[in-house]
Amino acid sequence: MKTLFNKLYSTLTCSNPTNLNIVSYYFSLVNSSPNCKHLRHLHARLLRTSLYDDVILSSKLVLAYSQHNKLTSDSLSVFFHMPQKNIYSWNIIIGEFSRSNFPLKAIDLFLRMWQSSDVRPDDFTLPLVLRSCVSCGLVELAVSFHGLCVKMGLESSLFVASALVFLYVSSGKVYDARVLFDGMPKKDAVLWTAMLDGYAKHEEPMLGLELFREMVDAGVAPDWVVMLSLLLVCGQLGWLKQGKSVHGWCVRRCLGMELNLGNAIVDMYLKCATLAYAHRVFNMMNQRDVISWSSLILGYGLSGNVSIAFRLFDNMVAKGVKPNQVTFLGILSACAHGGLAERALSCFEMMGDYGVTPELKHYASMVDCLARAGLLEQAEDFIKRMPMEPDAAILGAILAGCRVHNNVQVGERIARKLISLEPENSGYYVLLSNIYAAAGKFDDAEKVREFMKDKNVSKVPGCSSIESESWLSSSTKQ
């Protein structure tokens, strides 16, 4: 602390320093300021001299206050009182609000710059605004900013192009993102990664793998971010062999088992139904968060390993990790596969203790648990008490339970609701017909089949996929 003050006031006795040296000196002092108290002393010193008029120093002051968590209180005030502002100043304040979860304020500042100043945006400004629009869900405004990029000739900038690809991918317009991507004369690793991540997150794994091959052929070296997308793609396709190769690449490159990468590897092994590998990677992770625990619990829950799922849940709570919605979905799934209806009800009620609000998927899992246990009337009463309307998945779980437990009365009521919701879904007609047949009501079963023919509803053929020589082969069965 004393050293910093000595540095500050030693400028009073500096022998003939040039203005450039003074600016550079104060810049380093602001940059190394350890807390707000020191920063305010520097701020006061700059105000008492003409140095505050220097746009670089005052802009650095704006950034320094933000880095000390004084964005809204001090940074903004300093910015508005700056004698001069250039694009560097505007980019700092817009960027800080964009990165600090104040995207609307970032957009507001950009519009203020555009309307009330002579400063024009550059290829660093527009990506900040585009990402702020994505954070707010203002897709139409973002598309208008795309038009501004074109008018200003900035669309070919790699920074702007990456932000535009991110915009269209985030809004579900993957095709538009690819058109933009293909139109770029030059592509860097960030642009390739943004497009690959888009394919992975929108469940286009084959297109993602094709793009990755193009990326390698173009001589772009993949990094750990690309590996995250590849792991997601391998998990979506169930490609265990390729997933292991990606895992091996990470180990050979000594990337370690960082949190994001470890979670992605665990998720890939779970989706490939190799729980032992997933658990082994989980145990090797130096750090685990709620995502790590919840993924493994959900994996064991969906596979019916009830005891392991509950043991993991108990360990998670004991280590002070707060369960989230995915955690409880895994626990409810474990109860459903284990036929533990009473325990499922207690876990469902437990969600409120952890501040977790049940979503439609939790109600669906709870109904599935009751239906599997043969408590069909209780499941029917449960959906009547739901705060939202049940969807076809929830009603379908009860109908499947009626098929297993030969409950014709509940099956008829639920089937009517399902057919009114999705009249073209042949599965509901087939289930109802099978319920009638199992109960010996063959005439009613035949009527359902005839009704399907009259409505021109045909059974959708099943399809299975197998991995063969690093590719997928599929077979269809009627």
TrEMBL record:
Per UniProt, the keywords (alphabetical) are:
Repeat
Matching InterPro entries = E_motif (IPR046848), PPR_At4g14850-like_plant (IPR046960), PPR_rpt (IPR002885), TPR-like_helical_dom_sf (IPR011990)
User: Superkingdom, according to UniProt?
Assistant: Eukaryota
> In the record, which residues are listed under signal peptide?
none
Pfam families noted in UniProt? E_motif, PPR, PPR_2
Molecular function (GO) terms for this protein are:
RNA binding
An annotated GO BP? RNA modification
| PPR repeat extents | 86-121, 188-222, 289-323, 324-358
Could you tell me which NCBIfam families the record lists for this protein?
A: PPR
The name under which this protein is listed is Pentatricopeptide repeat (PPR) superfamily protein, putative
Q: Which organism is it from?
A: Theobroma cacao (Cacao)
